[in-house]
Amino acid sequence: MVTMSDPETPPFRYTAATAGEIEPRWQAYWAEHETFAAPNPVGDLADPDHPRFGAPKLHVQDMFPYPSGSGLHVGHPLGYIGTDCYTRYKRMAGFNVLHPMGFDAFGLPAEQYAVQTGTHPRTTTETNIERYRGQLRRLGLAYDNRRSLATIDPDYYRWTQWIFLQVFNSWFDPEVRKARPIDDLIAEFESGARATPDGRAWAGLSAVDRRQVIDGFRLAYVSQAPVNWCPGLGTVLANEEVTPDGRSERGNFPVFQRNLKQWMMRITAYGDRLVEDLDVMDWPEPVKHMQRNWIGRSRGAHVDFPIDDRVISVFTTRPDTLFGATYMVLAPEHELVESIIPAAWPAGTNEKWTGGADTPAAAVAAYRAAAAAKTEEERTADGKVKTGVFTGAYATNPVNGTRVPVFIADYVLAGYGTGAIMAVPGQDERDWAFAEVFELPIIRTVAAPADFEGAFTGDGPAINSDWLDGMNVVDAKAAMISWLEERGKGKGATTYRLRDWLFSRQRYWGEPFPIVYDETGLPVALPESMLPVELPDVDDFSPRTFDPDDADSEPETPLSRKKDWVEVELDLGDGPKTYTRETNTMPQWAGSCWYELRYTDPHNTKVLADPENEAYWMGPREPGDCGGVDLYVGGVEHAVLHLLYARFWHKVLYDLGHVSSFEPFRKLFNQGYIQAYAYQDARGFYVAAEEVVETDGKFFHDGQEVTRSYGKMGKSLKNVVTPDEMCDMYGADTFRVYEMAMGPLDVSRPWETRAVVGSQRFLQRVWRLVVEEETGAVRVTDTPLDPKLRKHLHRTIAGVREDLDELRFNTAIAKLIELTNALTPQAESTREAVEPLTLMLAPFAPHLAEEMWGRLGHEGTLAYADFPVADPAQLVAESITYPVQINGKVRGRVEVQPDAAEDEVRAAALAVVADALAGREPKKVIVVKGRLVSVVV
User: Fold this and answer.
1) Which of 114, 355, 384, 838 is in Cβ range 3.0-4.6 Å of 363 for a Cys bridge?
2) Domains of the chain, earliest start first
3) Interval 869-903: pLDDT, tens
4) Distance (Å) of CA 529 to CA 206, 526, 572
5) What is the pLDDT of residues 621-647, one digit of tens each?
């Protein structure tokens, strides 16, 4: 059809208008015929008549998006298009492909919008989801839409709550290194097979005491945890939501460190397995490195420092340095601080230790208030001046009996280790800096090199350490651990930088906990029959806020104001009673921790997933294989938290026998980012990139010069380009080909709208091989392909298959462009070349390929057509060219048969360079098979 804007365009050229007609038609066809539905082995999604039923499986998954109101920009679908190309190819290559998409739909943005507008977050979230679905459909993404899910669906979060109950009703048995049902623990206490932690007889404990003992073992437990409390927002914030200067990212309010009652997940129990199992997964090494660092496994010892009638336990990776411990430091939030403070300063207390306060209690209170106003980043920053205050108490060094003063200081955190350290300034830089400020003794316990100044952290012989003197660090550590254990003063241990997972949020828009509290104040799990606990409607979505500086304020959540929901009468087995519901909600991470499992059996109402379906899609391929999703694609920004939390939940489910794989994601691939230019005016404000004009190498907006910078595409930088715009201008297939051709999928790349036309021209050339632009007639013949082009075709097939298997989409497209360019000058388009080209193009430009496939005389979809396979005979080279060197310099080339014997190659090479040899007799003639001939004279 001739367009008004370009009357000379041939009527049947492939244009944006052509794409606009073809693409919706094929999208409707795929939807109507459920083309990309993947059959399950059993259940409602089983289909024995499906062309891939019983075929080898492939489970590919994208990290699912949070559906924001602004929709997708062209950077978002980069990974989605990549996995779509891969799965379309694998489906054609004979695999039963599961490629689903869902939405991570709980979380703060929708709640913020609800607070501002009064619109229920479900309303805005569901509207956003529909917008995303429309955008993803327009891109031609081949998802199994029967399996689509959103974390806000009660039918989905019923199982999120069920998983929480599995964690709550489990404990980690260190002897077998796995989770076990809590009932097993109770049975061990009842039988006497296991002693209670404090040695009391189980039979003598009250019912409440027994519950408290059991609750102390659970993998999900309630604790007084140090958190980031923001009174101005009325909620606890995750570390990622706090700016480096200790303020809330949203609203810029002060944030304080507070101990608050929170739900925790005992992820630290899995520290060893989380580290060790990284070795068996096909993940990028940088991501493995980040997880190992985050977990931070360290081997050392717990050491007990007596203080009056109490004991302060510290963990140290350097027990060999105990003779150099000259003071102790507790975190300001440490639970023992108040109990060890004397009424007055001990005689002779250094004034620098008191903070100018009259009493230890006053000094501690003032310092605690100051520390609460700092973030963890501020407290632990390298190079900052060390601050602290003496508690007035002294502990005893267990190896030599010396009295050591006990301080509190903000560089020690309550959540790390035991929240207490033994300070050895001679061997630790932070301790050295603190000791200098407070004039504390410094004793070296490892010999430093001559003239060395400052704390020495290297290896060397032990000194000033009595019976350890002369030992190296490794031997001294082992000897000290044995000494401590023999005398009951400590014990060898492994500890982690990883802290237990803070699992509570003082927000509305999240999953309710399946927990109530009885008259004892202890938590009670709801039975599975009462799931889901649905989120009630409320009039006010905002938590109660306070004076931004009121660090002592207490949270009031939106759910806590819903009194008719909070107070509930239930019969949980001992008659009707009144219970109080948990009024915190789960964090956004909860729903995304397990969605890969629900995709395998999304409509099952009896179990999370039928074991046969789960094992088919997620199970190990062979003994020792970790199992899991075959390919998981997403941004590296999720390298730690999301992936670590998902691994933890999955391992608990594996231990309890609910899943067959011990890891959720076998192979991980991190796609790069789409980057774009952004422009700022003289005030530093960003201006719309599409309104900027370039003149003589300078950039102008509304006639005013602006500066250009380069970075990640985003709404805040006003440099967003949407896929909708690209589909309008060029069509979805052109957009897909451009994104895949820009560069390797794992590398960030610059967006350049003007360059998209190159991908459109490529598709136009392919289209012209099939369709006559002036008449619309099919111009393909059955004439045999030229032998040289046949070899080119089969080399392309082999190369494209290899590239697609390795996710090298840009090089695969380059090969297709090269083949198309070779076919274009031919007088006739031959079916022998055009049909394989169409099939190879299908993963990248599926709508166009479907249309050409139909015009070539085929019915239905090509989604399950066999992907071309190269003929090995066509891959054999007709000849090999050898460069011939004389004393390292190329002097000629010789062409021989691929199977030519070495003597034949040598003779031919010498004949080619006879003139250059000028009668000289070679000392050596070296033939490197298939590469070169080296002549030495």
Assistant:
1) 355
2) 24-150+590-670 (3.40.50.620), 162-288+502-588 (no CATH), 298-495 (3.90.740.10), 716-873 (1.10.730.10), 877-936 (3.10.20.590)
3) 999 999 987 788 999 999 989 999 998 888 889 99
4) 29, 8, 11
5) 999 999 999 999 998 888 888 999 999
